[in-house]
Specification:
Elements: H1 8-15, H2 18-39, E1 49-53, H3 59-66, E2 70-75, E3 89-91, E4 105-111, H4 120-126, E5 131-141, H5 178-186, E6 191-198, H6 213-217, E7 221-227
Length: 231
């Protein structure tokens, strides 16, 4: 595990030449997420059952496999790296799936998915069904008021712009807010939000304790959510 360091400048540099640096970009994101979890006491090994939810290319799951974990990948479409094609994969529509059908896991990682769901509350209200007692759900996403809230048409989303070459609000990008997500998760008695940080600069986790300001100051929000040991 490397020491926690702000990776945002590195990500921006890699993103400037995305076609050339895509692998390094996603690998850095995934390693930073795993480092943050491990710094919070999460251990990953051969006995760990892990679900890479909304896996995309599968970088978080790949790193967990390298650590010996038993990994299942799930997404609406299979876009995994060629090296992961032999690993277990489940097709899932997170807007409406019965999450109880996808088994229970010790660790679920859902990275940069929530803001692309038309019905994010469906996942947030049922994510406990994916966890074993004591299990951990890592949730990260780009909140709408973030400097990157509009993705490729940022920062013009602050001035009302709703679409860009790739994303359109209401079609494949949806407005989410940190306060609303925390409120929904904290209302569930069997879940506990153990840690939160502005992803890519975890050192400034204190920002997440400032309502309203965090909506603008967090480039991306990362949460470590744990399920109670007893059902």
């Amino acid at each position: 595990m490397r020491p926690a360091l702000m990776i945002l400048p590195q990500l921006i540099r890699l993103h400037l030449n995305y076609e050339k640096n895509a692998h390094a970009f996603f690998d850095l994101q995934a390693r930073d997420a795993l480092d943050w979890l491990q710094a919070g006491g999460i251990q990953i090994g051969p006995e760990t059952r892990m679900l890479d939810l909304g896996c995309g290319h599968g970088y978080p799951g790949q790193l967990c496999r390298e650590a010996g974990a038993q990994v299942v990948f799930a997404d609406f479409e299979d876009l995994r790296l060629d090296t992961l094609k032999e690993a277990p994969f489940r097709q899932i529509d997170l807007n409406q799936a019965d999450l109880a059908d996808y088994g229970r896991h010790d660790l679920v990682m859902c990275s940069n998915v929530l803001e692309h769901l038309a019905e994010p509350n469906h996942l947030l209200s049922h994510l406990d069904q994916l966890l074993n007692p004591g299990g951990v759900f890592y949730l990260s996403w780009t909140n709408w008021l973030s400097p990157w809230g509009g993705h490729e048409f940022s920062p013009w989303h602050y001035l009302g712009k709703q679409s860009g070459p790739i994303h359109t609000v209401g079609k494949n990008l949806f407005k989410t807010y940190i306060g609303e997500v925390l409120q929904l998760l904290r209302a569930q008695k069997n879940l506990k939000v153990r840690r939160m940080a502005p992803r890519y600069y975890n050192e400034f986790s204190f920002l997440m304790n400032i309502p309203v300001a965090r909506e603008f100051l967090a480039w991306n929000c990362a949460l470590q959510v744990e399920k109670a040991n007893e059902e």
